[in-house]
């Protein structure tokens, strides 16, 4: 037992010696650090302090250089591109028509050294092939011959200006505006499916509301699938009221309810959508006649505008549609859509010349304000203006 305890005492002694050695090393390290610190001269300390001061500002400067890379909101608004006006949209929209008519006229005038009968024949061909129609084109060239002779025009510039003036004179009409003096007034919108009829109603409603008028639309096209839903979407976009029945309902009943709604709510304008296609042409025309009978009976003194929506891309087919619908009612105006997607803008001149029906609205885009009242002088300027 004494030996075992002895062995334990020896181990304790070893551990004690080991601890003392560690403490000595730690004390030595602390002593060496203090001695090393004392060996640093004042100049060395000063140099270290200067390095620290020089390093800090560089980081601040880099951060300050990164901040201005984000432009303030005010500057972003200043460089924002200016929204083009309707005339610029019209000019851009008529580019295909301008290339089809005006550009070709300019090329012919440049190639001819003198004004003669051969020049007139070339110009006549250009007008006919640009969907101005045979009759309209012949009348324009006949008038051009007389004007050239009377005014003694001998140069290409004079001929170009003469054509421009003749076309402008054929588009001028005192009735291009809407006559909506009664309360309520009625706009009946007719046209075949696919021409942009429902879209045009929404845009016209928006246009009238922007003038301070209270507008209601009647969803009387109850035959086409989703026609009511589509009109409801456009009514919400324009911020106007809508009167609707279920699909397949009697269109005349919808018109009747819409008229009563306008009377009770004091609406300024009622815009009526109508069917664009039934089983036969006869059924379509009969339904339209019923619609007009209801309006005339319920609002005998109201101003009624009957607007026919035509797709400009259909060219002379649009004139045929206008002749068909004019058999049902007296058309008061044309809404010509999709002018921005066709080279057949000459149809505007043809419609006015052959049917004597004024174009009241033209569409040159898909936005809400891309359907605007027709201005003949602006149209001719955009048609004959340069790019």
Task: Summarize the model shown.
With 387 residues, the chain is α/β, with parallel strands linked by helices.
Can you characterise this structure?
The protein has 387 residues and is of the alpha/beta class. Helix content is 59%, strand content 10%. It contains 16 helices and 8 strands. The protein has helices at 2-39, 42-66, 73-78, 86-93, 95-100, 102-111, 117-132, 134-151, 156-171, 197-210, 227-238, 251-265, 281-298, 316-325, 347-355, 376-384; strands spanning 185-190, 215-219, 241-243, 269-273, 304-311, 333-337, 359-363, 371-373. An 8-stranded mixed β-sheet has the order 3-2-4-1-5-6-7-8, sandwiched between helices. Helix 15 (347-355) links the parallel strand 6 and strand 7 (359-363). The longest helix has 38 residues, at 2-39. The protein is elongated. The termini are far apart. The relative contact order is 0.13. Residues 1-14, 22-30, 55-72 and 74-80 have low confidence and may be disordered.
**Which bin fits the share of residues in helices?**
55-70%
User: Helix segment count?
Assistant: 16
Weakly predicted, low-confidence segments: 1-14, 22-30, 55-72, 74-80
- Written as H for each helix and E for each strand, in order along the chain, the element string is HHHHHHHHHEHEHEHEHEHEHEEH
Q: What is the number of E strands?
A: 8
């Amino acid at each position: 037992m004494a030996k075992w305890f002895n062995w334990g005492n020896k181990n304790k002694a070893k551990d004690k010696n080991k601890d003392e050695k560690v403490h000595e090393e730690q004390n030595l390290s602390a002593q060496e650090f203090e001695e090393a610190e004392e060996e640093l001269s004042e100049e060395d300390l000063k140099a270290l302090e200067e390095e620290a001061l020089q390093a800090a500002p560089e980081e601040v400067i880099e951060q300050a250089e990164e901040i201005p890379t984000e432009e303030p909101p005010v500057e972003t608004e200043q460089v924002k591109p200016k929204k083009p006006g309707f005339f610029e949209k019209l000019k851009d929209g008529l580019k295909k028509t301008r290339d089809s008519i005006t550009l070709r006229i300019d090329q012919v005038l440049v190639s001819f050294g003198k004004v003669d009968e051969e020049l007139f024949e070339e110009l006549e061909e250009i007008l006919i092939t640009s969907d101005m129609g045979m009759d309209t084109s012949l009348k324009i060239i006949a008038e051009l011959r007389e004007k050239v002779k009377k005014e003694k025009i001998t140069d290409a510039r004079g001929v170009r200006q003469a054509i421009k003036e003749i076309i402008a004179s054929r588009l001028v009409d005192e009735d291009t505006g809407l006559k909506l003096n009664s309360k309520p007034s009625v706009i009946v919108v007719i046209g075949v499916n696919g021409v942009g009829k429902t879209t045009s109603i929404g845009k016209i409603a928006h246009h009238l509301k922007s003038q301070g008028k209270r507008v209601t639309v009647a969803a009387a096209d109850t035959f086409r699938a989703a026609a009511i839903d589509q009109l409801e979407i456009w009514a919400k976009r324009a911020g106007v009221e809508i009167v609707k029945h279920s699909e397949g309902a009697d269109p005349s009943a919808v018109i009747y309810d819409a008229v009563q709604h306008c009377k009770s709510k004091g609406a300024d304008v009622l815009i009526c959508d109508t069917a664009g296609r039934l089983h036969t042409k006869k059924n379509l025309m009969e339904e339209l006649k019923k619609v007009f009978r209801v309006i005339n009976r319920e609002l005998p003194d109201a101003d009624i505008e009957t607007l026919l929506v035509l797709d400009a891309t259909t060219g002379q087919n649009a004139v045929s549609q206008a002749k068909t619908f004019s058999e049902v009612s007296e058309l008061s105006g044309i809404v010509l859509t999709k002018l921005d997607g066709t080279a057949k803008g000459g149809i505007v001149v043809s419609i006015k010349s052959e049917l004597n029906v004024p174009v009241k609205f033209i569409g040159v885009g898909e936005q809400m304000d891309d359907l605007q009242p027709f201005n003949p002088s602006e149209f001719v300027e955009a048609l004959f203006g340069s790019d």
